[in-house]
Amino acid sequence: MECSLCSEKVDLGNNPEGTYECPYCNEDFEYEVNRKLREKLETKLDIMPNPSLDIDRPIDEGEGEKLLMLLDDNKKIPGSGLLKEEIIDRGGRNWVDSIVHILFGGAMLGLMLVFIVMFPFDSLVGEGIYGMFCSAGILLFMIPFLLFGSGSVIGGLINLISPGNVEQVLVRIWIHRKKKLVIVVHDVYDVESDVFYEPELISSFHLIRSDCVRVLTERPSDNMGTKGGRKVCIWNQNESKLKRLILELKLFEYDEKEEAEKAARIYAKKLGIPYEGEGLSYWYSLVPQY
User: Fold this and answer.
1) Other Cβ atoms closer than 10 A to 246
2) Where are the alpha helices (DSSP H) in 45-78?
């Protein structure tokens, strides 16, 4: 029969259905007599392999939702597997983040106020058309300070005064190897109201030939007050700078270089894409992505 993970032919002899280790990919797969029935179901839901996915990343036209529906119904889909499972906490009152936002926003608003006090409009802009253009330029220069400063202060105050409910989120990343489809699913539990919500599809995308696994590294900096870190992620060098990080997979401390590299190689093997070493994290934050 065909291994459901790497599609190689495996001889099971006369063995009954059960779990076996593939000699080619060294992963465990299940053999069931009714596998053809499930493959018919896959065909009906249009999540069968598509050979045209190796060039451009196609737009997800509902395939992620279809795969989530199958997984949510506890159906075992040939070629699919759980890539990552992690529980994170979110919501509630966060004193540190709120105070940082308030201080940062207050500093930006303070700089704007100092500029207004020290450099009055009359002494800068002059009169006539020239003065009008100067006034417009100064106002445009001050708008970002006003927007970011006030937004940061308001956000910090809202979290202190009226924080959201404390939630526990089960983050699951699934891979359908035949379709080269990756989905991120959140199962949310509201701790305060003791309510479990329906699984939610957060993101869904297809892997393409130019994708790889990479470890982004941020060095510790005493000047910036950062301790550094490492982020294992799906990466595509052909994208524009701000879109090269396709999906975060796992975070590590800066000193955990070997652990990060080992995890990256395991993820690359499971995803069926190459591991291409480390890169410096200039454009990308090492805070959790989801």
Assistant:
1) 21
2) 63-72
119 token code pair: 């450099």
> Would you give the end-to-end CA distance of the chain in angstroms?
38
Rounded Cα distance, 47 and 50, in Å: 8
Instruction: Tell me how far the alpha carbon of residue 144 is from its chain's centroid.
Output: 27
pLDDT band of residue 264 (cuts 50, 70, 90) is: very high
Distance of CA 172 to the CA centre of its chain: 11
108-122, 208-222, 259-273: which is most confident: 259-273
Cα 10 from Cα 180, distance rounded (Å): 22
Domain boundaries, the chain: 1-46, 79-91+164-206, 95-160, 209-280
Indicate the DSSP class of residue 166. Answer: P
Say how far apart CA 135 and CA 140 lie, in whole Å: 9
